[in-house]
Specification:
The structure holds two protein chains of two kinds. Chain A is mainly alpha-helical. Chain A has six helices and no strands. Chain A has one domain: Up-down Bundle (Methane Monooxygenase Hydroxylase, Chain G, domain 1), CATH 1.20.58. In chain A, 81% of the residues lie in helices and 0% in strands. The radius of gyration of chain A is 19 Å and the shape is elongated. In chain A, 42% of the residues are buried. Chain B has five domains: 153 residues, 2-Layer Sandwich (Beta-Lactamase), CATH 3.30.450; 45 residues; 93 residues, 2-Layer Sandwich (Beta-Lactamase); 69 residues, Orthogonal Bundle (Helix Hairpins), CATH 1.10.287; 153 residues, 2-Layer Sandwich (Heat Shock Protein 90), CATH 3.30.565.10. A five-stranded antiparallel sheet of chain B has the order 2-1-5-4-3. Chain B has a five-stranded antiparallel sheet with strand order 7-6-10-9-8, with helices on both faces. Classes of the chains: A mainly alpha, B alpha+beta. At the A-B interface, helix 1 and helix 4 of A face loops of B.
Chain lengths: 228, 581
């Protein structure tokens, strides 16, 4: 993608703007989940509130980018790789918007958790956050460079995040069994973990779209080779 | 080069020779012909006039004789043009010669000549005729004819000589051209080789020529230019290395963006910070390289305002670094827009700032809590509780406890500030560590017994002594042991021991407590810093214990280190400098 030059410089600029917009949106979502997580570990409700407020910007970017893409579809009538690029961009911005919503979900759970005493120190969740943040960054990198190797890396990381979610689930189960008073908090932490896992799914969705964009082959809904 | 020069010189010589020959030909050829013809003509006239026509017999002999001497054909014609004698032809077959131009000329002017193609001999002939006179009466004509190819031959001979001369001159000019071209080309060749080496970037001195003509000036000019160029390059390199030294040695990281907003230059100090987290960022835009919302927002603000913009961003997730950023325009690139982003690490500053604000907030909070309790009970007493002696006594007990806590707090604070200001007098003496531990243990053992915590002492009796203030040392151990017991759940264990390591005597206190999260460990020495904010206060600490230990250890020339595993326990290591023996 990068090396290609269109005859119309203006067209080229429009495509570049969409790329930049997506990176920016990606950076925003990444920041949102980082902040949601630090609001959890630092028990800081102010940060959680900020995450909820800042989601508006992510949503606004989603509609704005989508409009731009549709405008290009209508005016430029792109073909081949450009067409796939635009359609992929529309999908990606949707994924990112959903990721933003999940960061809001996490922040809301954090606000509730902060009302009560801390159940346990968080060890796996911050790890999960770092992995998921890396996945968002990597999936967008693979999109911008059209790099299938990075896309593959994202798919592999998704598996690790799944495992972590599973582990957190089991650990919280023991807490709940030990002490029924911890059920409420455990469930909320579980929801946070589940949301993280779904963010990872979205990042994987972006990576799959990139594979489609580069090769024209649809790899969605296919089993990951790691599973076998 | 040399070959070309040689050919040029040689061919110009050749051209000059050729043209001189051509001019010579134009001027000389006719001249030679004229002179030769005139000479032959004169000769023929002389011979013609020698002929004596006295007798026919003598005439016939003479005729042949003259023909023999002059190498010409002699014809005698009478007044009416009839041929009556000829040295070569049969006279009967010859036609009337009266109308021949030479005869006519001789008749009219006394002498006649003509050049024409002879039908009878088939060559160009020169004819000369003179009248034969008897008593002033023309009785006939003597005509002599000679073929002109003699003249032609002569001219050809002369030309052959000239050609030979040309050849010789040509050979000489070839040699001269070779010589001149070699001489001329030598300095040029030298300069050529010199500039070629220069072009390939090899080190070189200067050209030295033995000549003193224009090539010398040229060489001097080249030498001068090379010197100038090298000076300029050296100066540019010096400037560059100065700049790089400056950029490397300052703490600030510098980044330069080109017109396309792509990263063009990263200063070495910044590269060191960034490579691990962001890889190679050259050629990317800020957004692509950093994926940082705050940085991007700052850059957008800069693009709108065109004024220097400052901001604060956090880079990296695992080990975050807080950077003060300032974005400004770089001037001095005509026709181009360049921007400079300066990164300044403010992580430490931020941390200190937070410690300070936390401290103020904590002090007020810590002081207010007992004060509120005291005031509350005093108010209760005031509105009547004082009448109830039993309640009053209880309230006063509580108030006293709170006041004592307040007092402890103030004392701890004073201790710290005194140590920090260096106003505490230490009485350093040789202290036997097991002694001190022995005196401290009873203070915590009671508490430990309540929680069924076993205290284990693995310290060897042979542990060498340290140079320390005995009272302060007890304070250190009390604080650390108290903490260990406090944060260890029932049935746990506290172990302490000592070892010698790297010039230190290290006292370790292990517990099987809750442990401390990794990111909190480094903040433990801060005043009022509590890992578990609610629980620790319930346990009655002032939040200054470890802070005092840290300061006291510093005062002893040692240090405190804490390792911890969540859920497993914590190890506090106290490093005392070993005495030098």
């Amino acid at each position: 993608m990068e090396e290609k030059r269109h005859t119309s410089l203006h067209y080229e600029k429009e495509l570049q703007e969409i790329k930049n917009g997506l990176i920016y949106q990606g950076a925003l979502t990444e920041k949102a989940i980082q902040q949601a997580m630090s609001s959890l570990s630092e028990r800081n409700s102010d940060i959680a509130q900020k995450v909820i407020r800042d989601d508006d910007e992510i949503d606004k970017l989603d509609t704005e980018l989508e409009e731009r893409c549709i405008k290009i579809l209508a005016l430029r009538q792109p073909t081949a790789i450009d067409l796939r690029f635009i359609t992929t961009a529309i999908k990606i911005t949707g994924h990112l918007e959903r990721i933003g919503d999940m960061a809001v979900n996490i922040a809301e759970r954090v606000l509730q958790l902060n009302e009560e005493t801390q159940l346990k120190p968080y060890i796996d969740l911050p790890r999960m956050t770092d992995l998921v943040g890396g996945m968002i960054r990597d999936s967008l990198d693979s999109f911008i460079r059209g790099d299938l190797e990075i896309a593959e890396k994202v798919r592999r990381t998704e598996q690790i995040v799944d495992d972590l979610n599973e582990q957190i689930f089991r650990e919280l189960l023991t807490y709940m069994m030990e002490d029924s008073r911890s059920i409420n908090r455990s469930l909320m932490i579980m929801q946070i973990s589940k949301n993280m896992e779904r963010i990872a799914d979205h990042a994987k969705g972006i990576a799959d779209m990139v594979t489609y964009m580069v090769t024209g082959e649809n790899v969605r809904h296919q089993a990951c080779p790691m599973n076998e | 080069m040399k070959r070309n020069l040689f050919l040029k010189i040689f061919f110009s010589y050749l051209a000059i020779i050729f043209f001189s020959f051509l001019v010579l030909n134009i001027f000389i050829k006719d001249e030679i012909r004229k002179v030769m013809t005139d000479q032959i003509e004169g000769e023929l006239f002389t011979h013609a006039e020698l002929i004596d026509l006295s007798s026919a017999r003598a005439m016939s002999d003479q005729l042949r004789q003259i023909a023999g001497i002059s190498g010409s054909r002699v014809t005698l014609v009478d007044a009416r043009g009839r041929v009556f004698a000829d040295s070569e032809k049969d006279i009967t077959r010859l036609e009337n010669h009266f109308n021949r131009p030479e005869i006519q000329e001789a008749r009219l002017r006394g002498k006649g000549k003509a050049t024409r193609f002879s039908q009878s001999l088939g060559v160009d002939m020169l004819y000369v005729a003179v009248p034969i006179k008897a008593k002033a009466q023309v009785t006939g004509y003597v005509r002599l004819a000679r073929p002109l190819h003699d003249v032609q031959n002569l001219i050809e001979r002369v030309y052959r000589k000239i050609l030979l001369a040309i050849c010789i001159v040509a050979v000489i000019s070839l040699l001269v051209a070779l010589f001149i071209s070699y001489k001329l080309a030598e300095p040029i060749r030298l300069m050529e080789r010199f500039t070629e080496r220069l072009r390939q970037g090899e080190p070189q001195g200067s050209i030295i020529l033995k000549t003193s003509d224009e090539t010398k000036t040229l060489a001097d000019n080249i030498n001068y230019l090379v010197d100038e160029l090298q000076n300029k390059i050296r100066m540019a390199n010096q400037e560059k290395s100065k700049l790089m030294t400056a950029l490397t040695s300052i703490n600030e990281g510098v980044l330069i963006l080109n017109t396309d907003e792509k990263i063009e230059f990263v200063s070495p100090s910044l590269t060191n910070i960034l490579t691990e987290q962001y890889g190679d960022i050259g050629g990317k835009t800020l957004l692509e390289a950093f994926r940082n919302v705050d940085l991007q927002k700052a850059f957008q603000r800069f693009r709108q305002s065109r004024d220097t913009v400052t901001g604060e961003i956090t880079l990296g997730q695992i080990d975050p670094v807080i950077m003060g950023v300032s974005i400004s325009e770089v001037h001095g690139y005509p026709g181009e827009e360049k921007f400079m982003v300066v990164f300044h690490d403010v992580t430490r500053l931020k941390k200190l700032e937070r410690i300070r604000t936390d401290f103020v907030a904590n002090v007020t909070h810590e002081i207010r809590t007992p004060l509120t309790a005291i005031i509350g009970y005093l108010e209760t007493l005031q509105i009547g509780a004082i009448e109830n002696a039993e309640d009053a006594r209880r309230f006063i007990d509580i108030m006293l406890k709170q006041a004592e806590r307040l007092n402890r707090l103030v004392e701890d604070l004073m201790t710290i500030s005194k140590i920090e200001l260096g106003e505490v007098n230490f009485h350093f003496e040789d202290v036997f560590l097991p002694d001190v531990i022995g005196s401290v243990l009873p203070l915590v053992e009671a508490k430990a017994a309540v929680k069924k915590i076993a205290i284990e002492n693995t310290m060897s009796e042979r542990t060498p002594g340290v140079l320390a203030d005995r009272d302060r040392l007890s304070q250190i151990f009390v604080n650390v042991l108290d903490n260990a017991v406090k944060f260890t759940p029932e049935g746990g264990r506290v172990t302490f021991g000592a070892e010698e390591k790297e010039g230190y005597i290290v006292v370790t206190i292990d517990d099987t407590g809750t442990g401390i999260p990794k990111e909190e460990i480094q903040r433990l020495g801060e005043r009022f810093y509590r890992v578990d904010k609610t629980r620790s206060r319930e346990l009655g600490g002032t939040g200054l214990g470890l802070s005092i230990v840290k300061h006291l250890m510093h005062a002893h020339g040692g240090k405190m280190e804490i390792e911890s595993q969540l859920g497993r326990g914590t190890r506090v290591s106290l490093f005392f400098p070993a005495k030098k023996t």
